[in-house]
UniProtKB/TrEMBL annotation:
Gene3D superfamilies: 3.40.50.360. Signal peptide: none annotated. This is FMN reductase. SUPFAM superfamilies: Flavoproteins (SSF52218). InterPro entries: Flavoprotein-like_sf (IPR029039), FMN_Rdtase-like_dom (IPR005025), NAD(P)H-dep_reductase (IPR050712). Residues 3-149 form the NADPH-dependent FMN reductase-like domain. Pfam families: FMN_red (PF03358). It comes from the Bacteria.
Length: 187
């Protein structure tokens, strides 16, 4: 069975830079034959602020939007989170979407593509802490896209040539770890 990786677009902001970044990730990933890749846009799920009364670790979801989100996330073996950096962290929309679920994240791999004034490095670091709690295995490699050098006028995405090699390493590690964790997911 083919390894499935969800590329999660972690911004819902109007005029977001993340859409171009996520499409770039998908374009490069789609050339690979070792996994299937799908773009998952948080805008398509319209998740409210976390509104489930029972903690996600109990797996007793009650809201239709949570059930739809859980089904989508459960369908993947691993993830690439595309995250902006807002106020030295990830977006509230991505954090909220992550917080809705628990078991659907467990024993899967995650790689990170950040963008911001310092490449989204602080957002990625926060996501690494969150990943540990959710039993998501975060890969070492990461892509950090600077608004000053990988975007024209801080808005038109024009990644440096070296960024594709960095992304390839993130994809290599995420696919390999996703496949390696399969026995744990099947247990």
């Amino acid at each position: 069975m083919t390894t499935k990786i969800g590329i999660i677009l972690g911004s819902t902001r109007p005029g977001r830079n993340g859409e171009a970044v996520a499409k770039w990730v998908l374009d490069i990933a789609s050339k690979r034959t070792d996994a299937e890749f799908e773009l998952v846009d948080l805008l398509d799920y319209n998740l409210p602020h976390l509104d489930e009364a029972i903690p996600p670790s109990m797996g007793q979801y009650t809201k239709p939007h949570t059930l739809e989100w859980a089904k989508k996330i459960a369908s993947f073996d691993g993830f690439i989170f595309v995250t902006p950096e807002y106020n030295h962290s990830t977006s509230g929309a991505l954090k909220n979407a992550i917080d809705f679920l628990f078991a659907e994240w467990n024993n899967k791999a995650v790689g990170f593509v950040g963008y911001g004034s310092v490449g989204g490095a602080r957002a990625v670091e926060h996501l690494r802490l969150i990943a540990g709690e959710l039993m998501l295995a975060d890969v070492r490699a990461q892509v950090l896209l600077s608004l000053a050098t990988d975007f024209e006028n801080y808005s038109k995405f024009l990644p440096g040539a070296h960024q594709e090699a960095a992304l390839t390493t993130v994809l290599d590690q995420t696919v390999a770890w996703s496949a390696a964790l399969k026995p744990l997911r099947n247990a």
